[in-house]
Amino acid sequence: MLRTLPGALCALTLLLLCSCGGNGAKAPASGTQGNAGGNQSPPAREIALSLSARPEGQNWRVTLAAPLARDLYQFAGSISYDNTRYEVLAAEAGGGLGDPSQALYVSGEPEPGRLDFAYTRRMAGPGMDGNLNLYSIVVRPLSNDPADAAAVAADFQLDLSPERIKARDSRRQDLRCVLQESQR
């Protein structure tokens, strides 16, 4: 059974990781550093995300990835699923922001059917670029109905509401998260 953090501790950790910045005091939180106009924010950047699933024996691995990430420093989110259809066996950092010596990761299930997680680089410096795996969930279907990867991935929903998802670059600028439907 998946070990879970108490809901309050998980929410506090997500808030802490989302509020800390990539380069400490080196960049203002407003994101206006280096802007010639002085009072305008730079255009918001996006980060494309994808959810996919692949079989692992009798289980499935559902992976959240950022296929074209650029300077990703922090990510926190929430994934919901039908807990009457799947049992979560493991929830893991995807490795895209670094190994445990380079990144911090926390995950919990504050309520049945919802997994909250946060992942951040440890030290000030650049974010990560490329095809980044952010979060991985190993699940066991609770029925014997055959399923394909697209159907399993569709059963897991990334919550894109602003209070449930946060991505930042190394300059503490928010990145707008967009789920690529074609990857589902």
Give a structural overview.
The chain is mainly β and 184 residues long. It has a single domain, classed as Immunoglobulin-like, CATH 2.60.40.680. 10% of the residues lie in helices and 46% in strands. The protein contains two helices and nine strands. It has helices at residues 7-19, 149-154; strands at 45-56, 59-80, 86-93, 103-111, 114-121, 128-141, 157-158, 166-169, 175-179. Strands 1, 2, 3, 4, 5, 6, 7, 8 and 9 form a nine-stranded mixed sheet that branches. A hairpin with a 2-residue loop joins strand 4 and strand 5. The radius of gyration is 17 Å and the shape is elongated. The chain starts with 6 loop residues before the first helix and ends in a 5-residue tail after the last strand. Mean pLDDT is 79; it is low at 1-43.
What spatial form do the alpha-carbon principal axes imply?
elongated
Total DSSP E strands? 9
CATH architecture: Sandwich
Biggest sheet overview: 9 strands, mixed
The poorly predicted ranges are: 1-43
Highest-level CATH class: Mainly Beta
The CATH topology is given as Immunoglobulin-like
Beta-strand share of residues: over 45%
Total discrete domains: 1
Straight-line distance between termini: 27 Å
Class computed from helices, strands and strand pairing: mainly beta
What's the helical proportion of residues?
10-25%
* Cα radius of gyration in angstroms: 17 Å
Mean pLDDT, to the nearest integer, reads: 79
Question: What is the ordering of alpha helices and beta strands?
Answer: HEEEEEEHEEE
Number of helices: 2
